[in-house]
Model the fold of this input.
Amino acid sequence: MAVIKNLDELKAIQSQTSERIDETKCRILICGGTGCLAGGSGQIYDKMCELIKDDPDVEVHIGPEIAHGDVTVHKSGCHGFCEMGPLMRIEPQGILYTKVKLDDCYDIYEKTIKKGEVVTRLLFSKDGKEYEKQDEIPFYKKQTRLVLENCGQIDAENIEEAIAVGGYQAFAKALFTMTPEEVVKEITESNLRGRGGGGFPAGRKWSQVAGQKEKIRYVVCNGDEGDPGAFMDRSVMEGDPHKMIEGMLIAAYAVSAQEGYIYVRAEYPLAISRLRLAIAQAEERGLLGDNILGTDFSFKLHINRGAGAFVCGEGSALTASIEGNRGMPRIKPPRTVEQGLFAKPTVLNNVETYANVPMIINKGADWYKSIGPANSPGTKAFALTGAVKHTGLIEVPMGTTLREVIFDIGGGIKGDGKFKAVQIGGPSGGCLMTPHLDVNLDFDSLKKLGAMIGSGGLVVMDDKTCMVEVARFFMNFTQNESCGKCVPCREGTKRMLEILERIVAGQGTLEDLDLLDELGNMIKDTALCGLGKSAALPVMSTLKNFREEYVEHVVDKKCRAKNCKALRRFVISPELCKGCSKCARNCPVGAISGQIRNPFTIDYNTCIKCGACEDACAFHAIHIED
Amino acid sequence: MLDKSYYEKADEIIAQHGAEQKALIPIIQDIQNEYRYLPPELLSYVAGKIGISEAKAFSVATFYENFSFDPKGKYVIKVCDGTACHVRNSLSVLDRLYTELGLSKDKVTTDDMLFTLETVSCLGACGLAPVMMINEDVYPAMTPDKAAEVIRKLREEA
Done:
């Protein structure tokens, strides 16, 4: 691949490649995101290639390079509809096939590729209606995909496809037609707020770094997406890595930085390899490195792999980790913008924030502000998971309500359960319940409710989820991940976890609830870093919104969701029991006895509440007491 | 004392990343990739080579969960216990694997050095919860039975 030497060459590549893509009679895009790959999309890709390449009638091209051909096969990034994966999109018709299996490949090839017919059994259907086009499916229809616009639409391993859909044009616009000050001004005016959780205005960070006396500056991308239940950044890194790299380039130009780092979780091997490839291709094309596009602007980009520490998602811990130190937060000030990486001024934003930058430069701050509420403009990507029908990756304008997200896009609750709560913002966030369904999802509205948008994980919970156990789960996570530097977080989370463990074991008291509240407030007020300060939020928000469940656990020793093992009591319904003795034979502690053909009974002094009897009973005669 | 080849490999890896402090983590990540664990002798060796104290090198290596001074099995199984997996009952998968492999929280690697069983806070494949990862492959929508079946197959292959 030749180096792109100037703006004209970049524009020429864009028009040539987009023309070639338009001329292609059939483009097959197979989702190559982590989710679909796990479902077997890699083999489906191979199978489709194999079927097509032997056909003498079609001129075919396989693989990432762009070439002429009637049919092209690609591995794209995440299409978002993970629940229905593996997914396959057929262009230009815009057909989306769901739950594709290896055996389906032949039909797709024979019918769709050769004759242009639709294989209806692979279409998404709901309430008897089949949806041929991806855009018509309710899951997609209600979304506004801007950051994710190319995820699933382009080959994730090919820089030319990214250029064809407008990649690096915003960077070129900034580089050739704007001064660094104008770029900072545009981003500041757009009121783009950090998507990593804090919601700090990106423009303010940039202008502070640009204003420092020190001339060596860094641009760092936080891809250490550690919140359990969040995978937005992973999908961007895997599906459209060039958008994020372009955002970093624009930031580097705006603050005159020479070097940049991307810090990615070690748990995301695919994101790391796609980014490596993207950086290598951008270097080859002269879009990274020295004298970019023939100017005197130079920028080098490195990747650092995380090593399994959640706390490294905190700014000062992340920079410490890149420097080769223990990833522990430090006292601020000095702030990252003054003394960040290697004690130099540093712009630190997360993946999604950088991915927002190119469109702001392209279309302007006024356009950006027209999306969503004035105080939180733009869109937000969410990972919608848990007890919801359509799990996946979504993007909606800020200010969309929870109800729209969970019921319109997510299709409501899975199975026969009832909506109970949604956990938002991961271990730093809170649980919202039915009365909050109509609240707008934006930074400020959620903060008022004691929750936060966080990085964008939305875990939906139904009535089979115990909120006390959820609180214990998060506290266990935070306690494990506490770096141990400051006492409030190190000791406070440990004590809170002990209390929660006591409560789910049926040994809690009412005083424990007050103690939890007191400890939580203390940690919130005194912990060193943002993660510590918010560590108690999941407990405090459940304690506030679901207090009656806590009270039931400590006073009545009952768990209404039947989650907490110690509070379960198995009973045998005498009218259903046939007296077959299967339960007694399966009981590991010999707690069940009785006479054959007569109802059996459980000895509660011996029972260890393991549930083996319930699983063994063929007549559904054993259940947990309400 | 480790075989000479270990030190040669370490030299090679150090040369790739540069002998400076900021390269410590990438260097020991590559060493761990190579040997499936981080031999403590090599960590001391790397510290000397890149000009930091042994204490410093050990303080960093022990801070991060990914580094292990104990040899790991050929297949490192990471059962995801992130929120989405947790609410879709990932613990039952973990329990079954503990039984299936004869392992516990305190003993994480099988004696035949085939399997190491760990939990991970989130693999980011929440849409397919509950999931587990074996080396770099993600296994979606696990149930205790499916997980046991995967183990059985890997045993046969090994």
The two ends of chain B are 29 Å apart (CA to CA). The first helix of chain B runs from residue 4 to 17. The domain at 4-63 of chain B is CATH 1.10.10 (Arc Repressor Mutant, subunit A). Chain B has two domains: 4-63, 75-157.
